[in-house]
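User: Structure please.
Assistant: Input sequence and predicted structure:
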Amino acid sequence: MDEYQTHPDDKHYFDPFIRLLGNVWVIGSICLLSIIIGVALSIHHSEWIWFSRFGAIVTIAGLLLSNSTVFSDGIYLSHGANGGIPIRTKEKFIKKTTPEIREKGDRVFYGILFTILGTVIWGFGDLTSN
């Protein structure tokens, strides 16, 4: 069985990136940096709205970390529905997902991306009118 590899259909292009966003040190660093930048800009401009704005980034970081288990094995392989019998292909791959499971993984992935986009717009969108 060691000679078999994960089938390309079971891998998502963003798997390495999404796993990185589940790293507590990476997310913790993003949170700390956001807080420092928010406080520094607030002090510099004497306007504490900047601290609030960078709180939106902390919210995104928390969302990513709390959802990291959703993608711990990759966008497609993390869903419980893929627990069926793996298919061994003649090209020495093991395929564990179906098109339906990959579609569900994509929906969750894009849902998180839309949440991030919405939070950034919520926190910084009014700056576009200046």
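The two ends are 60 Å apart (CA to CA).
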